Amino acid sequence: MEQLTLAQILDAGLDDWRKLARALHARYLTGDFVTGLRFVTAVTEAAEAANHHPDVTLTYPAVDLALLSHDVGRLTQRDVDLARRISEIAAAQGIAADPAGPALVELALDSADIRPQSRFWSALLTGSADNVDPDEGDVIDPTGQVPLLWFQRTDAHETPRQRFHLDLWVPHDVAEERIAAAVAAGGAVVDDTERPSFVVLADPEGNRVCVCTCLDRG
């Protein structure tokens, strides 16, 4: 399956959906558990018909979905097609989307020697040292219980410094609002040279976080 470009995804007219790190994400405001379950049941039927299945989280007020062609590790036309079908189901059931709602947290760790680090953290976080992306060394929990951990290559160093930081992925059209809210709450912009791809913020004690979007990522 051919990987879709970001331009193709943004031009697909998926008003309910936003691309975060890898997948398409959507949140639907079902309002109660029974409505949510009815919606998920209809989505299940559509997914079975398409032989393509989203990740689904059903909570009392909302249903969160993520779409990615897991067999090829990227977004393809079948993700766009199923996203469009799910939006149709939501509209038919009178369920509103919350496009600003999706968010995704990833962990980033500076490392001079990624492979030993990745096996350690994979064993600790997932129970197996083998849940490591063979190309990038990312630790990916197949159960989705812990955030993805990726490694930022750095030179070896002995001086104490911050080694971990959070990556917060948000919809590209709400990133500036989220950054402004964090600054108003006492944070500071440390580096915005890569905006809109990411902006580095610091909390009042200097701990850093990257606010990431899908834009301008080559």
Automatic annotation (TrEMBL):
It comes from Angustibacter luteus. CDD domains: PCD_DCoH. Keywords: Lyase. This is Putative pterin-4-alpha-carbinolamine dehydratase. It catalyses: (4aS,6R)-4a-hydroxy-L-erythro-5,6,7,8-tetrahydrobiopterin = (6R)-L-erythro-6,7-dihydrobiopterin + H2O. Gene3D superfamilies: 2,3-Dihydroxybiphenyl 1,2-Dioxygenase, domain 1, Transcriptional coactivator/pterin dehydratase. SUPFAM superfamilies: Glyoxalase/Bleomycin resistance protein/Dihydroxybiphenyl dioxygenase, PCD-like. It is an enzyme of class 4 (lyase).
